[in-house]
């Protein structure tokens, strides 16, 4: 903005296209190169192209070889250099071989402060509290693309929370690859204390956090949720597999029983905390019996929803040394089995809300269906009706009576007098 750039709604209108990328799974990475290929024809119109994010960090200058029409490559460790890189890009006529790169090695970064944050979600303000990951799960590329764990000071997190309130946000989500290993560089607060403090910032009504790592997830988190109304009734606790043998091969640093123990703490809370997870199927060597263990763990936990993935070999990761012998079709079958099971579990979990009065934050209206769309504290989608003529502001809070449920959403009716809530 300060340099005279402004966002435009379409690629066609843009003079400069910055493409932000993710390399967590091979499919995401393939998409990047397919999309860059699509952009090639736009080059003739004089547009410039930059690639940002983890694929840029991982592939570096190789991007110029694979996609010669790219002018700028800026890895996730170099965002703070982006303004200078743009000046370079403007000043240097881009001839063959004269390209702008920002490929700092993140491993040397001790601490980080985010100076530039894009706010694309109008309802939820995201605050990164910790960057990087020291866990080195055998399948995961993040420690290589995002580097070592670095936490922000609690004071700067709180400052950003206040700024978000000034911008009109009432819901905040604290982000990190592993928020439970948050260490305040100023030594003032544990993660649980940070959660409690952010929740007291005047004007904040909902606080969420993700992602938790089971190994570092402590009872203090459950206690602070119980004690702090603004903390949402939701914990995302990725398990990846229900088999201790597979968990060990994945270097996840916990067993099935240790994971289930953490779940029992959450289920013993006074509040009705929803549970979500990530699951990988088809990790090298996963047997049918081990897949069954994942299914039985899903039954035992009773997840509200899960994100499921087929194992995908990633560069630099230790799992590359294991043979990826399970064919893609078999991985797809396992994925379908897990998703089918979750449909049944999710449907049962959602049914328990029928008849309850839940506070939701309004996100918009589906005019075609005549329904308002909102989120519960448990992060469930709620589609609800309101009497004709009632106008609800997006971002406002209302109470809704749950009248029905599906595996992935709830339906309801605006409760009488609840337009006064928000
Ligand atoms: N293959 C499949 N899924 C992966 N994830 C991370 N790396 C891989 C991989 N190589 C999944 C994990 C993680 C989520 C963000 O992405 O489930 O929790
Ligand atoms: Fe990747 Fe998460 Fe494991 Fe870190 S904890 S290595 S981000 S899967």
**Approximately how much helix is present in the residues?**
25-40%
Beta-strand share of residues: 15-25%
Shape: globular
The total count of strands amounts to 17
Largest pleated sheet = 5 strands, mixed, barrel
Radius of gyration: 23 Å
What count of structural domains? 3
Low-confidence sequence ranges? none
Quaternary structure of the protein: single chain
Kindly report the spatial arrangement of strands forming the biggest sheet.
Answer: 13-14-15-17-16
Give your account of this protein's structure.
The protein has 422 residues and is of the alpha/beta class. The chain has three domains: 11-102, Rossmann fold; 114-351, pyruvate-formate lyase- activating enzyme; 357-414, OB fold (Dihydrolipoamide Acetyltransferase, E2P). Helices cover 30% and strands 22% of the residues. Strands 13-14-15-17-16 form a five-stranded mixed beta barrel. It has a four-stranded parallel beta sheet with strand order 1-2-3-4, with helices on both faces. Strands 5-8-9 form a three-stranded parallel beta sheet, covered by helices on one side. 5'-deoxyadenosine is lined by residues 24-25, 139-140, 238, 240, 278, 280, 309, 311-312, 314. 5'-deoxyadenosine binds next to strand 11.
